[in-house]
Amino acid sequence: MEEQATGQIVGVATILAVQAVRAAGAYGVLQELWISRGFRSSHHGRHLLEAVHSEAKRRGWQMSEVALPPDGYPALERVRRFYEERGYRIGGLRARKRL
Prior knowledge:
The chain is α+β, with helices and mostly antiparallel strands. The protein contains two helices and three strands. It has helices at residues 44-58, 76-84; strands at residues 11-20, 25-35, 64-66. Strands 1-2-3 form a three-stranded mixed beta sheet, covered by helices on one side. The chain starts with 10 loop residues before the first strand and ends in a 15-residue tail after the last helix.
C-alpha cells in the first residue's frame, strides 16, 4: 500500500494460496499484514485487508486464514479484535518449528 501524496510505502500484505480437503480446494493464508507505525489506527490496515479479500474472491477462494501472535504479545487483544471485527473467527492454535 502506497500513500498517494508521497509515494511512501505504508503497508504490506502477503497471502499464500494453499490446497486443503477441509476447504474443498484452494484458500488463502495471510502471511503478513504490516502497517508502518505512523499510519496505524488510520484505517490503512482495514483497507489493505479489504484488498486482500477482493483478490481472494477474484481467485475463487472460499476462505482466508491468519495466524495470530502468541500469548504475551503486547498488542494481542487489539490484533484479535481487528480480525474479529472483520469477520474472522478464532479457532484453534497453530504450531511452528524452526528448521
